[in-house]
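re: ur msg from earlier - yeah i can do the uridine-5'-diphosphate complex, just paste it... oh wait u already did. ok heres what im feeding in:
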Amino acid sequence: MSRKRFLVTGGAGFVGSHIVAALLAEGHEVVVYDNLSLGHRAAVLPGARLIVGDLADGAAIDAALSDGPWDAVFHFASLSLVGESMTLPFKYLLENGVNGIRLVEACVRHGIKRFVLSSTANLFGAADRSPIDETVAINPHSPYGESKFMVERALFWADQIHGMRSACLRYFNAAGADPDGRLGEDHTPETHLIPLAIDAVLGRRPPLSIFGSDYATPDGTCIRDYIHVTDLADAHIRVLTQLDNRSVHYNVGTGRGYSVLEIVESVARVAGKQVPATMAGRRAGDPAVLVAGADKLRSETGWSPRFTDLDDVVGTAFRWREAHPRGYDDAVARSAPTSTPQRVRA
Ligand code: UDP
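and the outut:
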């Protein structure tokens, strides 16, 4: 692939930073647009340029987009706590939904031809089928899911009326970390199972609470499809070639589900000791099973996950977390004396 230029909103976040890494590895030029409210400066690899800017700042978005040409815009910048969205719906509908639509409009105005959206399996609610393929009815389960769907709809009309092609990638559970150990998962607050189980086994947090053991699954705990974030990054790059003449939607997961107890066992194998854990009640809004039907992505793009062994997925997450007890704060502390200054534009 010849060298291309990409703008990545939210490129300092967990998934976004791994896409930046994948684009840099292919020799492309990458500019990250991130307000660093949830993302981390140290998650932007040195080869990328960082613009510190907010999605709500139309003038700053315009300035960034004016600095084209851009081969595509990748949009990751968003709030992503489903539970929080159930108590603060308008925060999500406005910050993710409305600001996302403003970004789509700005991209159309600046003549962007390709747009890739980080979307979510939350769009499918508590689907009554498994695996969940692209034919399952959309029924967002939360204002978070709804906010992503708002942007998907804006992209539909941007295509119909203005010819801007887009890919909406509906992720299942992004997991793992950069196999080279440069990047990892650092959320505040952390709510996800794998990082919390790792912290519990490392003695950095109280025992893990297992949310519900009475689900209609073989061991009674919820089943999810944990896709390695590097495989997710690969999917984003592969879909670009689909966007020459049409827009696409794909569900992105491995097609294989693991229960909460299976994850806990995997963390124990990787760590070499038992994970302190206690049984707790169900967490509101958790469907029993969410597994992706990703055959469409596989057949149309040739994508397939390289991380097919759960312990490898967990292992990459474990190694990064073990080495970074304070997340990216450690990376900043370690790299400060020798780091090359990043070009930052306000
Ligand atoms: N989970 C759990 N204990 C925790 C965090 C999560 O048992 O401390 C369960 C949660 O109920 C769900 C699964 O682990 O069934 C994955 O949750 P996570 O928050 O990682 O991702 P989600 O599926 O909600 O996007």
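cool cool. The chain has eleven helices and 15 strands. ping me if u need the other ligands too
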